[in-house]
Amino acid sequence: MSAASQGHDAALAASSSKRPLGILAALPQELGDLIEAMRAESGVRTVTHGRRDYHVGTVHGAPCVVTLARVGKVAAAATVSALIHAFDVESVVFTGVAGGVGAEVRVGDIVVANALLQHDLDASPLFPRFEVPLLGMSRFTADATLAAQLAAACERFVAEEGAASAARFGTMRPRVHRGLIISGDQFVASAAGVKALREALPDALAVEMEGAAIAQVCHEYGVPCAVVRTISDTADDHAPASFVSFLTEIAGAYSNAILTRFLVARSAG
Ligand code: ADE
């Protein structure tokens, strides 16, 4: 057995004694190089479950299960359920891009959720708009410790690389926001659509398609979760083009920068 494979085995054995962190994104670009980094550090055991590949190993010193949820609330809920039941994750982090909704939220900024809500859930008049029927809740809070750790990783990224990143990608210097992220099974891509969301939910900072579903399932199972989103577009008529170029050119670099800092700090703590 080579020294490298002995190292991998030791890292995999060490990771098995500690409950792993689940890390997921919708699309491969949103995960950056996380799976490659895991492969290099510990080796990867890949388990296929419900048509998804779950990658088990250690990355930046932290035992993790990394997977792609694909797009939308059902896909996200199914994936996080598997992370909880089949992999016994200790907590969950979702990373990816989102459309900016808050007036101060620009392309290239980062939003860490304090709370998440499904903006397309409406069983009124039987239940209040946005409320999950029979659960009696519309807003799911992110785990305060995990969200603070993610926000700290984002702040360190901005302090250390924000100016260089802005110059490289032609964006403004990133800013980190914390607040409400809203999720629905729609790509919001019109001035009228984003205006309607602002009117209905004035404190919403960003819109995406998975986070609140993850937060609901994690709430129901008592699993801490947090969501971090980089702003790829402002959910208006320019959103499709802005989303595609941000996703292909920038999203991976942001994810790498944020997740590396988050995981290194977590392993040290
Ligand atoms: N993810 C990134 N941009 C989005 C948008 N405009 N609507 C929904 N999800 C998104």
Automatic annotation (TrEMBL):
Pathway: Amino-acid biosynthesis; L-methionine biosynthesis via salvage pathway; S-methyl-5-thio-alpha-D-ribose 1-phosphate from S-methyl-5'-thioadenosine (hydrolase route): step 1/2
Protein name listed in UniProt: adenosylhomocysteine nucleosidase
Native organism: Paraburkholderia caledonica
One Pfam family this sequence matches: PNP_UDP_1
PANTHER family named among the record's database cross-references: 5'-METHYLTHIOADENOSINE/S-ADENOSYLHOMOCYSTEINE NUCLEOSIDASE, 5'-METHYLTHIOADENOSINE_S-ADENOSYLHOMOCYSTEINE NUCLEOSIDASE
Residue intervals of the Nucleoside phosphorylase domain: 21-263
GO molecular function, one term: adenosylhomocysteine nucleosidase activity
Keyword field contains Lyase: no
Enzyme Commission code: 3.2.2.9
Top enzyme class: hydrolase
GO cellular component, one term: cytosol
Any one biological process term the GO annotation gives: L-methionine salvage from S-adenosylmethionine
Gene3D superfamilies: Nucleoside phosphorylase domain
Keywords: Amino-acid biosynthesis, Glycosidase, Hydrolase, Methionine biosynthesis
